[in-house]
């Protein structure tokens, strides 16, 4: 059986729980009330940015940490960091020369340097 719909039936409103037109719900009094409840100018201050701290997780730990901290306090932080940088560079050169002598590739050399850094942290050299 085919159902037929007449033109007069198309213009009848469908039953629904929505009471009101699209104009009043989107552009009507609801929008006006919403616009009044929000301030016109919202000032946002400059966001607070925290600088990342490059700290040793094992600071103060390790056998050599007290000696390293004492040396840093006696020599001064700037001079101490210069000496430590030179010592780390020299140690990396020694590791590089060792890798050349045994025929290790760059990846193995980098692994040894990382291992030396990790051991230095554990022993307290980087406190």
TrEMBL record:
According to its UniProt entry, the protein's GO biological process terms are: photosynthetic electron transport in photosystem I; response to high light intensity
Q: Which branch of life, at top level? A: Eukaryota
Give the record's GO CC terms: chloroplast
What transmembrane ranges does the database entry give?
none
GO MF, one example: electron transfer activity
User: PANTHER family from the entry?
Assistant: PROTEIN PROTON GRADIENT REGULATION 5, CHLOROPLASTIC
Q: What is this protein called?
A: Protein PROTON GRADIENT REGULATION 5, chloroplastic-like
Source organism per UniProt = Cucurbita maxima (Pumpkin)
> From which lineage does this chain's organism come?
Eukaryota, Viridiplantae, Streptophyta, Embryophyta, Tracheophyta
